[in-house]
Amino acid sequence: FEKLTREGIPSKQIITEIQPIKEITREVRTVDSATLAQLKSDIQYVQTELANRLYAPGGVITQQIYITEPIRSPKIYQENGDIVLQTLGSGNIILSAATGLQLHGSQVVIDSTSILNPLIYLADATRIDGPVTAQRITLNAPADFIGKILDVQLAGASKFSVDNAGTALLIGDFFITGNLSVSGNQTFNGTFTINASSSSPALTVNQTGNGKIFDFTSTANSTQNLGTITGITTNAILALYQQGTGSVLIATTTSSTTQPAIKITNLGTGESFIVESKDADSSPFVIDSSGNVGISTSSPLYTLQAWGNVFVGTSTTPTLFVDTGTQNVGIGTSTPSQALHVVGNILGSGNAVFEGVLDVQGYTTSTFAGPVQITTTTQPQLIVRYDSTNYLTGSVSSQGTTTLVSTGPLDLTGAGSSVWQTTNYGSLTIQSASSTEIVSGDSLIASSTNEMIFATAGVERARIDTSGRLGIGTTTPSYPLHVWGSAGFGTSTLPTLYVDSGSQRVGIG
Fold first, then answer.
1. What are phi and psi of 236, to 5 degrees?
2. Strands (E), 213-353
3. Is 67 within a domain?
4. Which class for 264: exposed (0-12), middle (13-18), buried (19 or more C-beta within 10 A)?
């Protein structure tokens, strides 16, 4: 003590004196009311002074701080400008304030030195406030850390967490009132609702890779529509733009599907379906609200209306072709030359009505299983044409007169008995072009029991037997028309029909 005093080091001297124990006697004093009131006042004064003496600027509990670290804990000392509070053993440092506790400094660091449980607990509701630059929390984990960097729990169960790989897991509803920009893979468990009120899209997904933009999958056997888009707009509800070479939309159903693959229900007055080749296309494919289908027209008036040529078929030769340039229809041909041009056989089970000229052209025989009725009054009503110069015309006048006019010889040949007569036994006139009558009056050319033979130069050329069979070149015809030898049918050196008995071939034309 004396050495410290000589060196000028402040110190305290503690003198302990041992006194003999005296006998303690009990002494009782009586305090009156005035003395008791004075005592209470003195105690209150001491409490106030004690509280004032324990307060110092900065919240330090005492103004007596050691400049060197004490030997034993608890310790409070200053080291290199820092104030150190250290507990004794495993005790806690508790800072308690009636209204608020403030920690001020250019940087406030709360560090946990526990390796087994390096956690910092905020037991009560916490708020971070201050300037904009101060409203930031940085959680910086070591490079070798593996696990959850942030873990928000409720009753010990994780609700929101972010691990070292940057994977965020959220359980429950997630409400965002501003913009949300997400990069990387995201997984949402539960419903995901976006509420927005802006002129910008509520959801924007930008895919810079070659993967899908979205992929929705439902594994439940649902009875509801798996996707619904509902809105009020003067434009389209859904617009798809293909900027590559692929399809715009692909819809595929399973083999067990019983509902329509694509179903459009139009409750308005607009078109039900439109297909355009470009934005300003004036020739779309349209299904209007009444069910009419228009091809190359936006306003179809019929169940199916095509504006332009129509080709129906599965090969280069169409089954049906409509040429709107010539207004001709071709069946079996793409170059119809007439209003109706048919290449192939025609089979009809009902009546065929022609209001104009019926022109039958071909190189084969035309067969009519029923009567041919011509009702036009324009004469001639019937024209049998071989070519433009050789033809047969027939007409019936209002008085019933039948006229046949041929540009060549008129040859009438029949099997069996043929009768030419008038209802009133009028005359039958056969005359030449010079109007010279060959036969005039009632005439009957018949054979009652024998065959009818036609001969020239004394040689038989043809005969009609009693059965009505006509034989040419044969005396025993076996068929209604029996020609022995080659036969040609026509009005020129080039026959319409030629039968070669030597080669047994038939030539047409």
1. -80, 145
2. 273-275, 285-287, 293-295, 304-306, 310-312, 320-323, 328-331, 340-342
3. yes
4. exposed
For residue 477, is the peptide bond before it cis, meaning its omega torsion is within 30 degrees of 0? Answer: no
**How far is 500 from 487, CA to CA, in rounded Å?**
7
Tell me the chain's radius of gyration from C-alpha atoms. 60
Exposure b/e, 386-421, CB count within 10 A at least 16 = b: eeeeebbbbbeeeeeeeeeeeeeeeeeeeeeeeeee
Look at phi and psi of residue 373 and say left if phi exceeds 0, alpha if psi is from -120 to 50, else beta: beta
Instruction: Report how many domains make up the chain.
Output: 4
Question: DSSP assignment, residue 274?
Answer: E
Q: How confident is the model at residue 328 (pLDDT cuts 50, 70, 90)?
A: very high
pLDDT tens string 357-395: 666 666 666 676 677 777 777 777 777 776 777 777 877
Q: Which of 485, 507, 505, 506 is nearest to 494 (CA)?
A: 507
Higher pLDDT, 354 or 264: 264
**Residue that wins the pLDDT comparison between 11 and 95:** 95
Q: Do 137 and 79 belong to one domain? A: no
Q: Does residue 335 lie within any of the structural domains? A: no
Answer yes or no: is 193 within a domain: no
CA distance 293 to 303: 6
The distance between the two most distant Cα atoms of the chain, rounded to a whole number of Å, is 197
pLDDT in tens, 334-348: 889 888 888 888 777
d(CA 343, CA 337): 11
Q: Which helix (H) or strand (E) holds 485?
A: none
Q: Which residue range is the domain that position 164 belongs to? A: 132-176
Closest CA to 462 of 421, 395, 389, 411: 411
Average pLDDT over residues 125-141: 70
How far is residue 471's CA from residue 481's CA, in Å, rounded to a whole number? 6
Q: Which distant-in-sequence residues (6+ apart) come within 8 Å of 70 by Cβ? A: 77
Q: Position of tokens 């005093």?
A: 5
Omega before residue 10 within 30° of 0, cis:
no
Helix then strand then coil, % of the chain, to nearest 5: 5, 20, 75
- Judge whether 398 lies within some domain: yes
Q: Which residues of 112-143 are buried (b: 16+ CB within 10 A; e: fewer)?
A: eeeeeeeeeeeeeeeeeeeeeeeeeeeeeeee
Examine the pLDDT at 485 and tell me if it is beyond 70: yes
The whole-angstrom separation of Cα 508 and Cα 363 is 6
- CB-based contact 279:239 (threshold 8 Å): no
CB 169 within 8 A of CB 158: yes
